[in-house]
Amino acid sequence: MKITMVGHSTVLIEMGGQRVLTDPYFGLRGNPAFSRVAPPANSREESREVEGVLISHSHWDHVDGPYLRSLGETPVITPKRNRWLLKILGGQNVLGLKEWESLEIGGLRVTSVPALHLAVAAGFVLEGEGKAVYFAGDTFCRPFLGEIAKRFRLDLALLPVTTYRFPMTMGEKQAVKAVSLLKPRVVVPIHLGIRPRSPFMRNGQTPEGFARLLGESGSSTQVALLAEGDSREF
Length: 234
Description:
- This protein has 234 residues and is of the alpha/beta class.
- It has helices spanning 65-70, 83-88, 144-151, 172-182, 207-216, and strands at residues 2-7, 10-15, 18-22, 34-36, 52-54, 76-79, 94-97, 102-105, 108-113, 123-128, 131-135, 156-160, 186-190, 194-196, 222-223, 231-233.
- The chain has one domain: Metallo-beta-lactamase, Chain A (4-Layer Sandwich), CATH 3.60.15.
- Helices cover 18% and strands 30% of the residues.
- The strands form three sheets. It has a seven-stranded mixed beta sheet with strand order 7-6-5-3-2-1-16. The chain has a seven-stranded mixed beta sheet with strand order 8-9-10-11-12-13-15, with helices on one face.
- Helix 4 (172-182) crosses helix 5 (207-216).
- It starts with a strand and ends with a strand.
């Protein structure tokens, strides 16, 4: 199983002989409120050769319209109530899943799991070759994470750790709580590719701070900090 950080919440997951990309976002400049910390490691063109794309929700930093339009018949998997919007944005083969519903991509089983965010949202669990990866999207920490842990023995979790003041998803402490519920072997922090343009909207939290708090909690989960372009085999 190989994980490559493209940037922000865009991660290439290679397992079970398949390549799946999460929450594609290839914009270089952000928007009026947020700047991009670093450019994505791969371009849209370099990221088209995948067997599936997961989109947890439709916020601007998780959906890339030009990329969707370039995919042709590659499956794009998203929450069922989000399917119509992704089709408007250019997705041609958009598959909507209800909570706990599954489908197959080659040798991979993809299951939609609950999420709570400021939009219609879902997380996803990928299973293949005896391994399970959880992609959280932008969820807050809620008790349903414990239900995910009951249903899946997670080898790896891709968890958001925000570094700004107003709540968009988990901060350091919520992410530690999420790990205690999910109990993955390894966690990779995501959602780190943008930041508020105003310094007053940043709170000083960091993925390193999350890793320190997790270690102090006595958790046995390992933290893998991946910068843009970094790959790690698990």
